[in-house]
Design a protein that fits this description.
By secondary structure, this protein is α/β, with parallel strands linked by helices. It contains twelve helices and five strands. A five-stranded parallel β-sheet has the order 2-1-3-4-5, with helices on both faces.
């Protein structure tokens, strides 16, 4: 039974995280945060809205292809796929989630601990399908991609009072980093060895945050305070990765930091072939995402490749490709 292609550099890509990497798990839970309708997915294979928060692919799809695997990673809860598909790649991510359980509660999405439970369930199915030895090889040789944290700040800490009353912004970052550490140690104990911990983008430059900034009299510029928090949190994650590489025997953990390349795109969009960075393609491009970004909105742009952002929170397929290629070339290729 052949389960990975001749040219594949790793046997599988396994994904945890939020909407930056969700391949459609939220379609199968009770939440308002979904994107399984047009115009989402209009530039995906067959123009299919899969539940990815983009006009096309999200980073794990590109990364899977760069490792010589399929050009997309299917969602674990998608009933169109089964363990034969998941043997070479699977996504447990849920849009709207974060490290903090309180973040996933905001929009009733899958918390990180539940993503790990799905992963344990997946391991059992994989062993039943391939036998323990082959399954264990895939588990230890697979690349694990994780991407979350933005929602912890934007949908939780800065939006709701509870965490702000408990933690200063710096202490909250340490709290999240401690959960990230516990998460990595958990999947390591389950057999994961090649792990990419994803950092935060310049989250103050999302069109939604620019719109908020405009309404508070700052002219639609990036929210500099949010960007400083992203940089500070990324530094904490980078230190964590260095420490865990020393602590966890046989592990290869990398920090995939999208901030510098994303910031370059936002600051000099024309050098990457983009025309618009402050406004998204979908709807008015100022604040809509999910159900507010639907096919009946007359404002949605015709060519998403001119735009850095697809909706007010998520990048276009083209932006995802540029960031993925950069991270693969600089960091992720060391995991093969």
């Amino acid at each position: 039974m052949q389960i990975f292609t001749i040219k594949a550099k790793v046997p599988a890509v396994i994904v945890f995280g939020d909407s930056s990497v969700d391949a459609g798990n939220n379609n199968h839970i009770q939440t308002v945060l979904k994107s399984n309708f047009r115009p989402y997915g209009r530039d995906f294979y067959g123009g299919k809205p899969t539940g990815r928060f983009s006009n096309g692919r999200v980073p794990p799809d590109f990364i899977s292809e760069m490792f010589g695997l399929r050009p997309y990673v299917p969602a674990y809860l998608d009933t169109a796929y089964n363990i034969t598909d998941f043997a070479t790649g699977v996504c447990f991510a849920s849009a709207g989630t974060g490290y903090d359980n309180a973040t996933s509660d905001v929009l009733a999405v899958i918390p990180l601990w539940k993503e790990v439970e799905y992963y344990k369930d997946y391991q059992k199915k994989l062993r039943d399908y391939l036998g323990a030895e082959k399954a264990n090889t895939i588990i230890s040789e697979a690349v694990y991609l994780t991407s979350m944290g933005t929602n912890d700040f934007l949908e939780n800490y800065y939006t709701l009072p509870n965490r702000r009353n408990q933690y200063t912004i710096n202490k909250y970052q340490y709290y999240l980093a401690s959960i990230a550490e516990s998460f990595i140690k958990t999947i390591y104990s389950l057999g994961a060895r090649k792990i990419s911990l994803g950092g935060l983008p310049p989250m103050g430059c999302l069109p939604l945050e620019r719109t908020t900034n405009f309404m508070t009299g700052n002219g639609g510029t990036c929210n500099a305070d949010y960007n400083k928090v992203a940089v500070a949190f990324n530094a904490k994650l980078s230190s964590l990765v260095a420490r865990l590489n020393n602590e966890l025997l046989g592990s290869k953990i990398v920090f995939s930091n999208p901030y510098p390349i994303f910031d370059q795109i936002v600051q000099t969009p024309s050098s990457f072939g983009f025309e618009s960075t402050a406004v998204a393609c979908c709807s008015t491009g100022l604040f809509e995402m999910g159900y507010m970004c639907d096919q009946y909105n007359p404002f949605t742009c015709t060519n998403a490749n001119s735009y850095v952002f697809w909706d007010s929170f998520h990048p276009t397929d083209k932006t995802n490709r540029i960031i993925s290629e950069h991270l693969f070339k600089t960091v992720l290729s060391t995991l093969q």
